[in-house]
Amino acid sequence: MKTRITELFGIQHPIIQGGMHYVGFAELAAAVSNAGGLGIITGLTQRTPELLAKEIARCREMTDKPFGVNLTFLPVLTAPDYPGYIKAIIDGGVKVVETAGNNPQKWLPALHAAGIKVIHKCTSVRHSLKAEAIGCDAVSVDGFECGGHPGEDDVPNFILLPRAADELKIPFVASGGMADGRSLVAALALGAEGINMGTRFIATVEAPVHANVKQAIIAASELDTRLVLRPLRNTERVLMNSATARLMEKEKALGSAITFEDIIEQVAGVYPKIMIDGDMECGVWSCGMVAGLIHDVPTCQALIDRIMQDAHHIIRQRLEGFVG
Ligand SMILES: Cc1cc2nc3c(=O)[nH]c(=O)nc-3n(C[C@H](O)[C@H](O)[C@H](O)COP(=O)(O)O)c2cc1C
Known about the structure:
The chain has about 325 residues and is α/β, with parallel strands linked by helices.
């Protein structure tokens, strides 16, 4: 399949694996890229720029296909060493960066000078237009369904994607709730030129996370995620578990007076314990409503092949049949 996204990134299929904290290691990024999609290493999961440089080198040993690095610009007072991370990306010869969080404008000149394409993840049309205006090459439009941070507007992809298509000139991918060939065809119909998946890629053979995490996704239905941290205007869609229940009780009791310190136990430093150790109740972790569509743990190659085959079948047989 050929779209502006496959052309821009030099990939075979219009399928991207979004950056995921403590999931987006070299093993997963390489597996997605080897299967013809675009794999992405999560920059900030590597604690220092030196460790990111090593992770990029490790990924390059596992694939000769293009892969990217996610840089998430966090709303924190003490910022990570972003210049150091960007140097590691440029020196590592990476050609795609997925930015997320705050506006990436400050970093674009250095990335573009190194020939790097930038795709910015946005949860609204206004942020997507801003990304286009500052010179991003593409946008990942992340609807309300998504795992992680859906923003504060709560617009689902059936509205958000066609709205983005009406306004944007640069290509965009649909992110949030994408799982299979149906998702891809629907996204293309709504104006996107590919899909970005997070949760679906966690339940794959190569995702280097504990088996408990993959099982939790398979066991979950579309009813099992919750929105937390809304009072802090940092809304996150997470899987329901006992830590999520405790956090929600605190949010209810404290209302708008809640501070980060009140919930530190449920959110700080929990990702390695969940993703690596499989301690599923120790804290809250991002998960999309799309869990309801995930029932197996295929290899990335099998997953991407299935998505592309199903998409072709839907377009050529089902849709063509309606109009033919
Ligand atoms: C466990 C997990 C961790 C994530 N961590 C990040 C992150 O560090 N940076 C980021 O930009 N997005 C992060 N995301 C969001 C994904 O990149 C992607 O946008 C999102 O999962 C898409 O929605 P889906 O889960 O419905 O496919 C994370 C998502 C999950 C499920």
